[in-house]
Design a protein that fits this description.
single chain; 683 residues; ten-stranded mixed β-sheet; 25 strands
Length: 683
């Protein structure tokens, strides 16, 4: 244990950090939200990380079973954004998602070799510093004691964090209560260091209340305002942000740091492309941070992303993680990857989705201590150096879906990495709360995935994409989801047209597909579920056996064949007069729906239901069309792939987007470039 004398610790925090740049402040929630508290502070300090992959009991069972979190959460201990008041003989750990230092990410992506922890307290206390290994085991590093308060500092090496690991500290009070006044993690400033600045680009469609909340949140974050050049909100809705109550007051606080852009609806890709465009043309910012409108923001996370990017060896895209807006202690995704054989996105294989920190804190979650490398970061929160935008262009003009993934892949092809940085995050509605693969977005899911694969797939004819795409069509048809198949097939038809259709149709495609969907009963959702005829099952299940999910490929194929055979059997007339069953959205799977002639299926958000009805003629027409289109794509893959690759720099260029913006801006204009645009090199 090290005991620091009073004359050594009674110093101002600013003096400690003269030659150091603070990059990670210990922060706390001040809204009394007990759900988010485990992300910031951990009162179960006796718990330690257990490597559940390597330690087993005598019986062979994992010895790393996670012990449930204690309910001993004390929001009353929090006395400020950066202060905690700890009663005598108490202990609290800051080995938490937002307050532990992600050492391995700094080791991997920067030239920083050490980090300084500075903890300021007002009375006698002990600070115990820990680090973890990539396997998730914890190691005590040092114990520092202040006899009467002041600043405790320790310099810590980053050399041993090659594959993973975090630093954190516990605070222990002695015979008197102690207040943590502030705590910071800092790194040495390189010679001639100039911190970067950021423009935050938000795109919105009919969420003016969320946007006004963004304005207020940023205005109340003084540390963030120091690095913020401008908040750019691109409003694409018909419920205008400027008409929302509280808008004028919130905008007035930010003053020249705020810009409202109004244009027609170009989707997420069009809105974010506009934010990129405005940032580059302003010529002021080093970074453009893309941010969803419907998120709750931890402003410290934005600041950390900017400051991490300041130190990366080369310009690097820095993304934030996504927490569940409805279960705020639940981390929805920790890292995203692209399976190039399938050409589909998904969670990194080293991570686990929907991790609940209220059940298992950072120190008892071994997999989270291994550094996770990603292929891209979702644009719910993603910081992009302006220099990268200048070099590789703006977003893909695809309206929605795959724009963020494609940009990450495009940047990687040019040698730029993406980092999903722990401690930087927002709260957002998770995609598990909806099924956008069967609504109007089915078109964009299908078309944009194929376009991205044609540009980037390393496999001949797109690997498994062709086979998987056809299988999904079959699955939807067996499920009586004809509207989704129609949109997917239209997507393939547009892919065959070549890249010229992207900018041409970005402003017209959405109303077209919305109108097309109204022709299908499975797409017609009624919120008045009592308006449907009563359920009547004409023929009960054979031997009373209810459908179950196939356990292997053999049984899946057998069920698919059985479902296909039903398509040549006439539909029972009474099934068109009365639905045969009520099927919850979570149970609306092909192996269940293929056994019915009709069903009432609830919507994913639970607000209504649709009446699915089997249509043999539609099945035959659509399956034939799907086979034809997939065959055409197979035969023309090489030609189309060459076209999309060749045209990528053109349809992602500022010039191409400018023409689209001019056509869609409410006043028919687009901001002019700043005089120093060509001289602003970014980072």
């Amino acid at each position: 244990m090290s005991t620091i004398a009073q004359n050594e610790i009674d110093r101002d925090m600013t003096a400690v950090d003269t030659d150091w740049q603070t990059v990670h402040r210990v922060v706390l929630p001040t809204d009394g939200d007990m759900d988010t508290l485990p992300l910031y502070v951990d009162f179960n300090s006796a718990q330690r990380v257990i490597d559940d992959r390597s330690r087993t009991s005598r019986t062979g069972a994992s010895a790393g079973a996670v012990v449930g979190q204690s309910a001993n959460q004390r929001s009353d201990f929090i006395v400020g954004r950066r202060q905690v008041r700890l009663p005598e003989y108490n202990r609290v750990s800051f080995g938490t998602y937002f307050n532990a230092f992600p050492a391995s990410y700094w080791r991997a992506h920067t030239d920083v070799e050490q980090v300084r922890l500075a903890v300021e307290v007002d009375s006698e206390a002990t600070v115990i510093v820990y680090r973890s290994s990539p396997r998730g085991t914890s190691n005590r590093v040092e114990s520092l004691t202040s006899e009467s308060g002041g600043v405790l500092t320790i310099d810590l090496p980053l050399k041993q964090f090659g594959d993973g690991g975090w630093y954190w500290f516990d605070l222990v009070s002695h015979g008197n209560a102690v207040t943590l006044l502030k705590a910071e993690w800092s790194v040495p400033k390189p010679e001639n260091f100039v911190p970067g600045t950021v423009s935050i680009a938000v795109t919105t469609f009919n969420r003016p209340d969320f946007c006004v909340r963004h304005l207020t949140t940023f205005a109340e974050a003084p540390e963030l305002l120091e690095v913020l050049d401008r908040l750019i909100i691109t409003d694409q809705g018909n419920r205008r942000v400027k008409d929302e109550e509280g808008y004028e007051q919130a905008a007035a606080v930010l003053g020249s740091k705020f810009r409202l852009v109004e244009q027609g609806n170009l989707g997420g890709s069009g809105g974010f492309a506009r934010g990129m465009y405005e940032t580059v043309n302003d010529g002021e910012s080093d970074y453009c941070l893309l941010l969803d409108d419907d998120v709750m923001v931890e402003t410290e996370g934005i600041l950390r992303a900017v400051q991490f990017a300041d130190f990366t060896r080369t310009p690097t895209i820095v993304g934030g993680h996504m927490f569940n807006l409805y279960e705020r202690s639940v981390l929805h995704t920790f890292g995203e990857s692209i399976n190039e054989w399938r050409f589909y996105w998904g969670p990194n294989q080293e991570t686990k989705e929907a991790h609940d920190f209220s059940a298992s804190n950072l120190r008892t979650t071994p997999w989270m201590h291994r550094r996770v490398d990603v292929d891209f970061n979702g644009w719910w929160m993603c910081l992009i150096p302006v220099s990268i935008i200048r070099e590789i262009g703006l977003a893909l003009p695809v309206f929605i879906k795959w724009d963020d993934a494609e940009f990450g892949i495009r940047a990687r092809k040019q040698g730029y990495k993406t980092v999903s940085l722990p401690g930087s995050a927002v709260w957002h509605m998770p995609w598990t709360e909806k099924d956008d693969t069967i609504d109007w977005q089915a078109y964009f899911h299908q078309r944009n995935r194929w376009i991205a694969a044609m540009i980037y797939s390393p496999y001949k004819k797109g690997g498994n994409l062709m086979k998987e795409s056809f299988a999904v069509d079959v699955r939807h048809l067996l499920s009586m989801q004809y509207s989704a198949v129609e949109l997917r097939l239209e997507g393939l038809e547009d892919v065959l047209k070549g890249p010229g259709h992207l900018h041409e149709t970005i402003k017209t495609k959405l109303p077209e597909i919305r109108k097309r969907r109204t022709e299908f009963t499975d797409a017609q959702v009624s919120t008045d579920v009592g308006s449907f005829p009563p359920v009547h099952r004409v023929r009960p299940p054979k031997r009373g056996i209810q459908p179950v999910a196939p356990q292997n490929m053999r049984t899946a194929l057998a069920k698919a064949v059985t479902g296909a055979v039903r398509q040549v059997v006439p539909v029972r007339e009474k099934a068109l007069e009365n639905p045969e069953a009520v099927v919850p959205a979570m149970d609306a799977r092909w192996w269940r729906l293929s056994q019915l002639d009709s069903a009432l299926v609830s919507s994913a958000d639970g607000t209504g239901a649709s009446w699915y009805q089997r249509d043999n003629a539609k099945f035959r027409e659509m399956i034939t069309r799907s086979i034809k289109l997939h065959k055409e794509l197979l035969l023309n893959w090489d030609r189309l792939s060459e076209q999309y690759r060749a045209e990528l720099p053109n349809f992602t260029s500022p010039e191409a987007w400018r023409e689209t913006f001019e056509a869609m801006s409410s006043d028919g204009s687009v901001s002019e470039p700043s005089k120093d645009t060509n001289d602003s090199a970014g980072k």
